[in-house]
Design brief:
The protein is built from three helices and no strands. By secondary structure, the protein is mainly alpha-helical. It has one domain. The N and C termini lie far apart (47 Å).
Length: 85
């Protein structure tokens, strides 16, 4: 089980870094759904890892990271639905 929790943590780390890197290289905008989904999925995976490892400061920061991504996703989806209507 610990092996898979470690893999989950690494995949989450890669997702967050890829999102940040693509944004920094202006390949993804921070207001894009893809950017926010990468951030959210990475944060969720890192939360799973940090809870298992009992690294609660990391759980906290990734929970905040996930909440920010969720709020941004709702705003993006709302904006898309109003422009398509």
């Amino acid at each position: 089980m610990e092996f898979w929790i470690t893999v989950i943590g690494w995949v989450g780390s890669v997702a967050v870094i890829v999102a940040y890197g693509l944004n920094s290289m202006q390949k993804l905008k921070s207001n894009s759904l893809a950017f926010q989904v990468l951030n959210l999925s990475g944060a969720i995976l890192l939360i799973i890892n940090s809870v298992f490892k009992e690294a609660y400061p990391f759980t906290f920061i990734n929970t905040v990271w996930a909440i920010i991504a969720i709020v941004a996703i709702f705003k993006i989806v709302r904006k898309l639905s109003t422009t398509q209507a």
